[in-house]
């Protein structure tokens, strides 16, 4: 039985949700009117200025509006990729299950008729030989070339923030787009399911609370500090920083946004030891879905709850961190080897038997 105070909190939350729904609709209406009157100066011109777009590199947004705002030219890599698969999980689920996934890159099949299973709350380490297709898989997921539900938000860390006049703090705090997207997603979910209690909707409202402007700066500053930015550095324009440091800003933004699916390819590449240690602690607490490629076994041991092995064009799943994966795999291989030897002995035995008695 929920306590009185829990009931009260729940009621307050619902009220806040209702207010938010109202505000979102009002904002949208106002925006539409402005566009009709030509007063906004053009959505694209306003929202996709170089700084604003660059502030969220890799961020993939689901709504149609955002898709227009952030539409990127099809890059060469994605033109060379061909992906097929069937969504097996419910479109409103927070897990992603895709069956019969195949990915071809430059005519070479990297994944063939395999299953992708990503569950909420898990942090996956993606391992495989060099050139097996790990980065290609992350690119395909980040670009939504596989059937991921449109309301599932993804952040694929691919590039550093632009060398603009914005400060790292501003880049990280540039969350209005994120807030608008979450509000749109909540509205879509309400229309689709009408269930205010749904887990996903609750998650979105919690995140909207987290994006509260009152605490936004403190949170952004904490993330930047963890990644090596002193308070003075946080106020300098991004154009004064090298690509590596701007990559850290991008990483801070990814952590700030906390997407449902976070894709990181070698996130420690631009970090010193202190920042690596801090990032490990931060990612350990990641409650949504993380898929990460890292050459550091220690880092993977600290962060990952599961390992996906890209092996012979298929995805093989293991529970536990990297060490657990190595142990399970060696046990499996030993078992297979024993079985192989046993079968070989049997064949030999049969041959001798046939030779003797026939
Ligand atoms: N421009 C290209 N033309 C043709 N083949 C390419 C090109 N770029 C990459 N490949 C091939 O695509 C395959 C997958 O590459 P990908 O970068 O996804 O592998 P990876 O597992 O991430 O490797 P690594 O561990 O080295 O990062 C590789 O076999 C690579 O040779
Ligand atoms: Mg790679």
TrEMBL record:
Keywords on record: ATP-binding, Nucleotide-binding, Repeat
Annotated Pfam families: ABC_tran (PF00005), ABC_tran_Xtn (PF12848)
Record CDD domains: ABCF_EF-3
Bias kind Basic and acidic residues: ranges: 65-78
Biased composition (Basic residues): 21-30
Domain ABC transporter span(s) in chain numbering: 96-337
Region spans: Disordered: 1-81
GO MF terms held by the record: ATP binding; ATP hydrolysis activity
Family: Belongs to the ABC transporter superfamily. ABCF family. EF3 subfamily.
Protein name: ATP-binding cassette sub-family F member 2
Lineage: Eukaryota, Metazoa, Porifera, Demospongiae, Heteroscleromorpha
């Amino acid at each position: 039985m929920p306590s009185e105070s829990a009931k009260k909190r729940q009621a307050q939350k619902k009220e806040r949700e209702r207010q938010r729904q109202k505000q979102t609709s009002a904002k949208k209406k106002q925006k539409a009117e402005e566009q009709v009157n030509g007063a906004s100066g053009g959505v694209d011109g306003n929202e996709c200025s170089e700084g604003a777009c660059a502030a969220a590199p890799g961020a993939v947004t689901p709504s149609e509006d955002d898709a227009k705002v952030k539409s990127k030219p099809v890059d060469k890599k994605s033109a060379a990729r061909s992906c097929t698969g069937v969504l097996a999980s419910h479109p409103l689920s927070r897990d992603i299950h895709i069956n019969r996934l195949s990915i071809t890159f430059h005519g070479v099949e990297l994944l063939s008729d395999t299953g992708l299973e990503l569950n909420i709350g898990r942090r996956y380490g993606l391992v495989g030989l060099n050139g097996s297709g790990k980065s290609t898989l992350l690119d395909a997921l980040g670009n939504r070339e596989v059937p991921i539900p449109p309301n599932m938000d993804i952040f694929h860390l691919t590039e550093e923030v632009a060398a603009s006049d914005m400060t790292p703090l501003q880049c990280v705090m540039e969350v209005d787009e994120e807030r608008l997207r979450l509000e749109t997603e909540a509205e879509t979910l309400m229309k689709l399911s009408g269930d205010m209690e749904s887990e996903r909707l609750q998650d979105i409202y919690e995140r909207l609370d987290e994006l509260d402007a009152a605490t936004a700066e403190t949170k952004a500053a904490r993330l930047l500090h963890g990644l090596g930015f002193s308070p003075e550095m946080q106020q300098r324009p991004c154009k004064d920083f090298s690509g590596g440091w701007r990559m850290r800003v991008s990483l801070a933004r990814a952590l700030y946004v906390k997407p449902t699916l976070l894709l990181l390819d070698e996130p420690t590449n631009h970090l010193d030891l202190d920042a690596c240690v801090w990032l490990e602690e931060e990612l350990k607490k990641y409650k949504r879905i993380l898929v990460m490629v890292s050459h550091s076994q220690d880092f993977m041991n600290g962060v990952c709850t599961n390992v996906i092995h890209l092996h012979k064009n298929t995805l093989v799943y293991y529970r536990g961190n990297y060490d657990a994966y190595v142990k399970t795999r060696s046990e499996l291989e030993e078992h297979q080897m024993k079985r192989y030897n046993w079968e070989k002995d049997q064949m030999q035995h049969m041959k001798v038997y046939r030779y003797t008695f026939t």
